[in-house]
Amino acid sequence: MRTVLITGASGGIGSATARAFHREGYRVVLHYCHNKAAAEALRTELPNSELFRADLSISEEVLALAEAFPETDVLINNAAVSLFSLFDLVTPEQEKEIYDTNLLAPVRLSRAMLKHMLPRKRGCILNVSSYFAKTGGSCEADYSAAKAGLIGLTKALAKEVGPAGIRVNCVCPGIIRTPMNDRLTVEEEQSLMEEIPLDRFGDPEEVAAALLFLAGDGASYINGAVVDVDGGI
After folding, report:
1. 193 contact partners, CB below 8 Å, separation of at least 6
2. Were 132 and a residue from 21, 104, 144, 205 both cysteine, which residue would form a disulfide, CB within 3.0 to 4.6 Å?
3. Residues 193/229/57/166 CA torsion (nearest 10 deg)
4. What predicted TM-score, i.e. pTM, was given to this entire model?
5. Which domains, from first to last, does the chain contain?
6. Which member of 26, 131, 143, 221 is catalytic?
7. pLDDT tens by residue, 146-191
């Protein structure tokens, strides 16, 4: 049985991804930080899944997560925090949180997990970025920059560890119906929808399906790819 470790598993995309991998017979490790109730409910829903709490903005806790599950076959760096603010008003505390969680945590966790994957000469790392990494988002400059860093990490790391049989890929979700987008007004939703050729927001399950495919044998020759799941926006 293969093991998948999903960071931010209590969120919208994270929980949908956990369910998708569980249906395919994976042993699922559910990471969470703040939303204990949702994480525990998900563990109850998915028999044989495991729960681990860690604050990914703290490097020591990132390392503890990696050491707790050295047998991980698929690492999904999904956990993220959002920040909607004018660039010049972002506080040092907000700046630290956005980069520590959205970029440095995946860097640190991938580095720690590779110490276990490289000797086995197999494994898969999947990074969840954002379409803002490519287009930029007004009042979301730091979020966009951190997510863009994940694309650079994906492409560089794929070249470095590919010869060892480890694939690294990335998905860039567009506007997905998750709690992260609850701040949008009806007018803002309508305006955004007009930019999407498919004329709707995406569902978390559609991002999960892309991640499941990239982790599977059907994607065995896909490495260093950035897959857009954005309705063509």
Report:
1. 199, 200, 201
2. 144
3. -170
4. 0.96
5. 3-228 (3.40.50.720)
6. 143
7. 999 999 999 999 999 999 999 999 999 999 998 777 777 788 788 8
